[in-house]
Amino acid sequence: MRGGLEMQAGPSAGRRSSEADGKETGRRRASRGGSVRRRRVLRIGTRGSPLAMAQAEAVAAELRRKTPGLRTVLVPIRTSGDETPAGGPGAGGRGSASRGRSAAGAFVREIERALIEGRVDAAVHSLKDLPVRLPAGLEIAAVPPRADVRDCLVWREGVEFPHGARIGTSSRRRKAELLIICPDVRIVPIRGNVGTRLRKIAAGAADGAVLAVAGLARLGLVGGDSNASAGVSGPAGRATRGREESRGARFRRKGGAWTISSGTFTYEGAKFYWIALPFWMLLPAPGQGALAVEIRADDDWARAVVSPVNCRETALAVAAERAAMRALRSGCRLPMGAYGWFEGKVGADGKRRTMVLEGFLLSRLGGPRRARMAASVVNMRGAEDIGRMLAEALRTGRCCQPQPLAFAAPGRPERAKSGEPDG
After folding, report:
1. Catalytic residue among 82, 121, 129, 225
2. Pick the catalytic residue: 39, 47, 172, 174?
3. Least confident residue range of 100-104, 287-291, 339-343
4. Contact 120, 313 (CB under 8 A)
5. What does the mean pLDDT of the chain come to?
6. Is 173 labeled as catalytic in the residue annotation?
7. pLDDT in tens, 47-104
8. Higher model confidence: residue 245 or residue 337?
9. Rounded CA gap, 384 and 320, in Å?
10. Which one of 103, 208, 305, 317 is most buried, by most CB atoms within 10 A?
């Protein structure tokens, strides 16, 4: 059958045609790395940091569980972001030394090059590290179920957080949102992977720091949220140097109930306290808490192997968040946050769950803005549409909500100060 038309010929011609088609198909599969039956080892590229390795191993373990007989090999790759002191992971601080396009891909560029050159078959990234535009020939083949998306405040034992406390972050988004709710804190730059930042806090470089809950949970330092971390979220208790000692109370917000909001853990002998920050305080970066499995677009075998770990709702939510970031041309330069989630249940009448997408933007002209959109989203096109709608609302100031309260002293809320925080 060619062009939708069935072509008839004699038996021998049919056999010759089938044999030729089979050989051609085999050649195409070989050019893509081999047939499904012949390829049983999946080489996974990843950064070499403890967090990146833990994330990649969690995905690899889930792939092996879903595909019996599959072997996986982790291939650590050093990136320019690891070599540049000014770099920091994701929206947690991509660094001031690498601006624009270079900063946006600092933690993935070398891994993507290895993927294009065929040295690895797939790559596992923190999704917020991925630029919104991928190199030609690459695609995101799977987005596993999302872990806890929240930011948290971590501080060392003995710190009472007086006025003027030094909070470490190199993220413009976190800095902007923190100064809105706590205008009396001092923001100090702090960079490096999770372990490096914790060591700097313990050494007194800052009183505390803002980190992603998902990163701490994947390292086994704290517990992850049960509502946000189904499936691939990292093995609990993986890190032998960290141990969670207590868990806090439950609290609720629109969009879902969240648990394990506070506690303590130890890291290399130092004791730390942590508390998860609700979304009205800090809206997370686009893609925060999510992982991405990237492959070559023409590698059908790799796509078939990694697709079982894909979570459809997570993929749609992060696609909407990244579409908003792309529309705002934010990258890592503009203080911007976005988070999408699904509400409701699919009933007998076929009613679909609704995606809610909330965004934050610190505009140089209009100050801090928040907006929320809701729509029934069933495919990537719909996800990108609602993302662009959110970006337009944030850009123009339409449909934006009042900013949260700023706390100048415990128990005495007052309206956030006017003016633009230094972002």
Report:
1. 129
2. 174
3. 100-104
4. no
5. 76
6. yes
7. 999 999 999 999 999 999 999 999 999 999 987 766 654 433 333 333 333 344 445 5
8. 337
9. 5
10. 317
Q: Which domains does the chain have, with CATH numbers?
A: 41-144+290-310 (3.40.190.10), 151-286 (3.40.190.10), 313-401 (3.30.160.40)
311 is catalytic: no
Q: What is the dihedral of CA 110, 114, 120, 121, to 10 degrees?
A: 100
Indicate if the pLDDT at residue 105 is higher than 90.
Answer: no
**Residue 138 is encoded by which pair of tokens?**
């690459």
> What b/e readout covers 226-254, taking b as 16+ CB neighbours within 10 angstroms?
eebbeebbbeeebbebbebeeeeeeeeee
**Catalytic entry in 47, 94, 146, 197:** 197
Annotation marks residue 174 as catalytic? yes
Q: Which of 47, 146, 166, 173 is labelled catalytic?
A: 173
Tokens of 121: 């078959």
State CA 293 to chain mean position distance: 11
Query: What is the pLDDT at residue 348?
Result: 54
- Of 150, 166, 191, 218, which is the active-site residue? 191
The active-site residue out of 182, 311, 332, 400 is 332
Active site residue 252: no
pLDDT in tens, 173-223: 999 999 988 888 999 999 888 999 999 999 999 999 999 999 999 999 997
| Cα–Cα nearest to 298, from 23, 38, 28, 2 | 28
Active site residue 128: yes
Report which residue type is found at 153.
L
Residue 335 and residue 344 in contact, taking contact as beta carbons nearer than 8 Å: no
Tokens of 339: 């988070």
Distance, in Å, from the CA atom of 278 to the CA atom of 275, rounded to the nearest integer, reads: 9
Cβ burial of 188 (10 Å; 0-12, 13-18, 19+) is middle
Q: Which of 47, 128, 146, 303 is catalytic?
A: 128
- Active site includes 250? no
